[in-house]
Amino acid sequence: MIKKIINSNYFYAFIALCCALWLFFFVSTPGVGSTRDSNQSNTSTVTKKATFTVPLQLQADVDKYYITGYPENVKVTIEGPSALVTATKNTQNFNLYLNLKDLSIGQHRVQIKESGLNSELTYTIKPKYVTVNIQQRETKKFAVDVDYNKESLATGYEAGKTEVSPDTVTVTGAASEIEKIDKVIVKPILPKGIKSSFDQEVLVQALDKNGKTVNVTLDPQTVHVKIPITIQSKQVSVNLKQQGSSTNSNYTFESDVKNVRVFGTQDQIDAIDDSIDVPVDVSDVTGNTKKSINLSDALGSKVAFTDPESISVTINTGSSSSSSTNSTNSTSTSNSDSSSTNNNSSSSSSDSTEDNNNSEQ
């Protein structure tokens, strides 16, 4: 019976009907596949906006012309499908440029253009127009001068011959700007009171006769500047000399320091002999004493400084020996007077004895 039913055409018709109903419900009911397609559709329709900076390119004969006035970078805002905006921002696979190929020498207002952006994107560029100056290009070499404030050096220190490396630079610019250049210079800034050699990279400047910067390109833009800074010195002996008025003329001076080293410029050192006179003021000295003499103050502008900076001087007035002499003289006088008294006493005693003898007779 079951076999007869299975072999029946009605059975196959029933199976076909069930399959058709199943397919109908599968298509009409949302499933995993339809959800994925829906999400993809929604993503493609979501828009996004992004702003970023892009280098500005030139389409011109830059070997022949020198062009100024344009920015190196410009801002671009793009809008469109989210995925496309993100990809464009990350890759920046498009160009913003100025087409100057057909322009003559002079100033021109030129629109910034783009190439390579997807047609589904809209964009705005800021600035939209720029004013460029096209001039005949010229290249010239200049020697580099050095200008610095020598007052920055510490007292007594001198600067030697300045070394600049490289000592020439290549200047490129409009021919009219090159003609304005009066000098190419570096201005190293030395610290106040510098005592050691200056050794740094310094920015190069092209200046006109009024000291204003000329609009040109320098290669290299910095140079190495070395300024040797030194101080001269010399070992000399010390001569202690009396200074100031006093009634005592028997002063003598003693110091444990016999030699000092003096420092200064080459001219100062050359002007000093093998010894220096150090004045010792005695105008306020009334007895044996010690004084500390500041050598820089004593020598004035003859040197920058000394080593040591000061020395201790013992001043002897000779008053101790004078007092001793007076004391000795006083003692001698006293002894003489005592002897005279004793002699007188002896004489009186002799006279008295003689009188007694006469009386007995």
Automatic annotation (TrEMBL):
InterPro entries for the chain: c-di-AMP_regulator (IPR053154), YbbR (IPR012505)
TM ranges: none
Feature: compositional bias, Low complexity: 319-361
Region described as Disordered: 313-361
One Pfam family this sequence matches: YbbR
PANTHER family cross-referenced by the UniProt entry: CDAA REGULATORY PROTEIN CDAR (PTHR37804:SF1)
Record's protein name: YbbR-like domain-containing protein
Organism name: Companilactobacillus huachuanensis
